[in-house]
Amino acid sequence: MIRYALRRVPSAILVLLVASVVVFAVPRLTQGDAVTALAGPDATEETRTAIRQGLGLDQNVVLQYVHWLRGLVTGDLGTSYIRKVPAVEAIGTALTQTITLTCAALLLAVVLGALGGVLLGTSRRPLVTRPVGALVSLSFALPPYVTGVLLVLALAVTVRLLPAGGYVGFGDDAGLAFRSLLMPALCLALPAVAVFARFLGASIRQVMDEDFVRTGVAKGLPRRRLVSAHIVPNALPPVLAVLGIQVGQMLGGAIVVEAIFAWHGIGDLLVNSVLNRDYVLVQDLLLLTVAVFVVVQTLTDLAHAAVDPRVRLEA
Amino acid sequence: MNQQLVHRRTAALAGAALLAGALMGCGASASAGPGGGTVTILQSADIAPTTFLSQNNPNFAIIRTVFNTLTTYDRKTLQPQPELATSWQQSSDKKSITLHLRDGVTFHSGREFTADDVLFTLKAVQRKDVSSQLKHVAAAITGMKATDAHTVTLTLQQPVSNLFDLFELMPIVDQATFDDLLKGRRFVGTGPFTVDSYTPGVGVKLKKNPHYWKTGLPHLDGVNIEVQSQSQSMLSSLRSGQSEVGLDLAPLDTAVLRGDPAFRVIASEADDATYYVASNVKLKPLDDVRVRQGIAWAIDRQRILDQALAGIGRTSSLPWSESSPAFDPAKAGTYHQDIGKARQLIAAAGAVGKPVNVAFNSGFLTNQTIAEIVQFGLKNAGLDPKLVPLQAADFFAKLGNGNLPGLYVNVHGFGQLSPATLVKGAFPFNAKKNASNFDSPEYRAVADQLWSANDPAAYGRANDFLLENQFVSDLVVSAHTFTVSSRLKNLDYTMYDYIDLDDAYLTD
Amino acid sequence: MTAISTSVAGVPARERSRWARALRYPEAVTGLAIVVLLIALGLLAPWIAPYGFDAQTADSFAGPSASHLLGTDELGRDILTRVLYGIRQDVFVAGLAVPLGAVVGTLLGLLCGLHRIVDTILERVFDVLLAFTALVLGVAVSATAIGPGMTSIVVTVVLVNVPLFGRLTRTAVRGQRTRDYVVAAEVIGTSRIRVLLRHILPNALDSLIVQAALSLSMAVFIEGAMSFVGLGISPPAPSLGALLRTSANFVNQSPWYALGPIIVVVALVLGFNLIADGLNKGLLRR
């Protein structure tokens, strides 16, 4: 096991290194740099050059890379060109909002998805499955920038039920924070609801064909108990596998949802940094997402290896 | 359209103020004058502290709330009025000016405002790494001297027509904290509000400055400036009552609120959002003046005004606001859509079927809509136009170094004040170096003539030159807008569109 | 196991009947009908559209009428016409990019079965690609010499699909490698590449096809998301994503605007999903 880990971990580090080159290069391939945003409109070439020198953007690119990498190792993510604050600080502030949003959306997706999935999987009545199926498909087919706009129009403008946007911390005003969270979370959750419902439904139908369910039916177990105690638990594992992918998808969807609801999370930070050419933040954020992915992958592989010796031997 | 909007607004404001005053007298609030409250202002981009000494849209809400300027133009008469400078005398040769500064003004840090701060701010504008459209004016100041703590004498290299444009553009900054200001860490001014907290990318929280030099003001307890990138989210927030002011909503979104008694859409009479299409004259076929004139004839300006700008503004072939001394109503109507004329000119230049790129900043839906109308016009006039959306950073970088790939659709300001400020400071028109790569000794001469004095003959010459050469074809002179909840009274603004909340208050 | 006999005996003969079986599911038929109809409408757009896609008029935000069945947009253009051309645009994007991504991804996935080192490297490549969201990939691609527009979108959709198909194939390869028939084939000296192509690939094909149907609907989303950040297909040519995005901007001015694009996108995504469902039942569950 240790030998497996010894082999697995360096490869993960290699991936991160390669990724660091990619994420360093990508923003620099784009046209224009942070000077545009810092100099403002109508700035003369002379002013631009002076600002560029002040930022160190005229330095050798390789040097800039080495400097960044050295900082990363010591835990220094650099300083934002535009915001002038340490990248750690900017990312930290944004992360709070995105984590709140994603967790809430995930919770909603699991609850609603489970509901839809059980209905789709266990019910044989077309009067139930058809509308549920249609709703599920609809929630998958509508992109967040459409559902978001429609939700706001309905629930915040027409009926003033929920705030139209903005993030409120749970520490500041828990009630308002909850109400502000509902729409963005729902909007982000909807596509995932569809995926969960579909996978769970399919998985349940598969489980229902298995012998132990037939035995349960033969033994005269009440249907409700059969579903809740036997079928769903057995149908869950394959659905959990989808969960990881959905979290990744949500981080992507957060870009759009945060824009519509005026949240200032990771998605908003990334888009703004890309648009303003704030290289430091773009690099850090991209590397962060890759790192999260690689770490999760490595951990699952290691866990897999721990329970399944064949994996260890094969590698 | 715009004028109507403005006038209706002024009347309504006056009425509301009277009414409110009467009501307040009945003791609605215990304190003197209208009650407090906090106003939330929405804007699409974060404030940009590095550009505080230039005019930059994201700073409209913070400059005049946290800082003061030396003088401020009366929007009706365009005469400079006292602000931090109480009076001034200009020498007869216009090459020197003495400013008397207000007594008893303190910075938010508690330090007294003196002549040194004026000198410091002027020197900051001269700094290489600080941008400002009025650098050329600051650069023309060859001597500055504080004769006493509250008197400043400036000597100029030559007489300039737009000195007060600089005085109004330039917020007086605190020399002790200027470096922190550029980094967005500390904001120390003399204005009615102090910065309570600033979260980059999210917004600024301001609170009342209890030691403001206008005694008894401001009424409001605080101001929140919040960043909301989507115009539609701003609209929703305003309509749901979460905020009171929306800065520059997409024009078509302001149209939604027209006729809604809960809101006023104020189109600033500075009229300094002029939409234009310009040519990179280095590229064929745009190097031919006939093609550029043909393009000016090909575009349906009326449809741009109606469909892209929701009727805010007026069509014009000249860059000036109506209030500008250089504005000439007859000449402003020179170009209007005439496909026949356009085809003729383009054919005469042998440019029929020639490909032309039309670049625009894709982050800005209004510009895209205008670019589409331009594209359709050019197609009908016989050119082969192709739209090229560019990300803001890319677009402005290319604009800055004159590398845009053909025509480009954009918006410029500075048509509202001294005509010299436009041809000297607004980059599309800058006679020394501009985004169009248009360079001619005559144009430089025109610009210098405008700069040295306010001379009506020079205006006529400049107008004719711009109309003839069409390296920039102005389309619609529009305005920055403030969408204001009717709960907020007495919102004011300067000729640079800086929001002034000195007298503002909220009603229920 | 039937899988073994099918594959070892060679694919064609029985494959047809399985496809036929998939088509017996009403989902698949409905889905196919919707998709075929929409694709046909899109392809025929230049001939059946009532107006030019960039024909502007002064009559903006008009509601549905006899002359404009879906109303007009902000520039007075006929929305029905633009929707038809939008379908056409998306059919090209999805029809080009998804198969390309699928083929590249599948080939790379198969390569994983060739050698352990290749496998390790490719798996990491997939990891890195998956770690970037589609939008970030889009920004990165548009940043290169390609620039924003149609080509960038196609490349992005390809890049998004490569790891999806790659991983799916890789999993199938790993699952099949220890199966008896593969071992048997190796024992009798069949080359590895041959085993991969002739025996393992056909077995992975079913899930790949289901993924392809899902990827097609995803392509429409990605195209829309890219126009969201201004990297979409250059105006004035319409695309479904751009129409959806623009109409969402004008929901306050003209609710009708959004209707057409929403219906078409939902129908298209629904159609692909139904096909995927049908195939799922017909092909995967035996």
Short description:
The complex is a heterotrimer of chains A (315), B (508) and C (286). With 508 residues, chain B is α+β, with helices and mostly antiparallel strands.
Description of the structure:
The complex is a heterotrimer of chains A (315), B (508) and C (286). Chain A is an all-alpha fold and 315 residues long. Chain A folds into two domains: 2-74, no CATH class; 88-314, MetI-like fold, CATH 1.10.3720. Helices cover 80% and strands 0% of the residues of chain A. Chain A contains 13 helices and no strands. Chain A has helices at 2-29, 35-39, 45-55, 61-73, 87-122, 126-141, 144-158, 174-208, 211-219, 223-260, 266-276, 279-307, 309-314. In chain A, α1 packs antiparallel against α12 and α7 (144-158) packs across α10 (223-260). The model of chain A has no long low-confidence stretch (mean pLDDT 81). Chain B has three domains: 1-41 and 193-264 and 491-508, Periplasmic binding protein-like II (D-Maltodextrin-Binding Protein, domain 2, 3-Layer(aba) Sandwich); 68-190, Dipeptide-binding Protein, Domain 1 (Dipeptide-binding Protein, domain 1, Alpha-Beta Complex), CATH 3.90.76.10; 273-478, Dipeptide-binding Protein, Domain 3 (Dipeptide-binding Protein, domain 3). The two termini of chain B are 30 Å apart. A seven-stranded mixed β-sheet of chain B has the order 8-9-10-1-11-19-12. In chain B, strands 14-18-13-17-15-16 form a six-stranded mixed β-sheet. Chain B has 17 helices and 23 strands. In chain B, α10 runs antiparallel to α13 (365-380). Residues 1-32 of chain B have low confidence and may be disordered. Chain B is of the alpha+beta class and 508 residues long. Helices cover 75% and strands 0% of the residues of chain C. In chain C, α5 (79-111) crosses α11 (240-249) and α10 (192-228) runs antiparallel to α12. The model of chain C is unreliable at 1-13 (pLDDT under 50). Classes of the chains: A mainly alpha (315), B alpha+beta (508), C mainly alpha (286). Chains in contact: A-B, A-C, B-C. The interface between A and B is large, with 52 and 52 residues.
Helix and strand pattern of chain C: HHHHHHHHHHHH
Calculate the mean pLDDT score of chain C and round it: 79
Rg of chain A, Å, rounded: 24 Å
CA radius of gyration of chain C: 22 Å
**Contiguous runs where pLDDT drops below 50 for at least 5 residues of chain A:** none
Distance N to C terminus of chain C: 11 Å
Q: What is the total domain count of chain A?
A: 2
Strand portion of chain A: under 5%
Largest sheet of chain C: none
Number of continuous helical runs of chain A: 13
Helical fraction of chain A equals: over 70%
Unreliable runs of chain C: 1-13
The count of DSSP E runs of length 2 or more, i.e. the number of strands of chain A, is 0
Let me know the largest β-sheet of chain A.
none
Summed over residues and divided by their number, the pLDDT of chain A gives a mean of 81
Alpha carbon gap, first and last residue of chain A: 11 Å
Biggest chain pair contact, residues each? A-B, 52 and 52 residues
CATH evolutionary superfamily of the largest domain in chain A? MetI-like
- Class by helix and strand content of chain A? mainly alpha
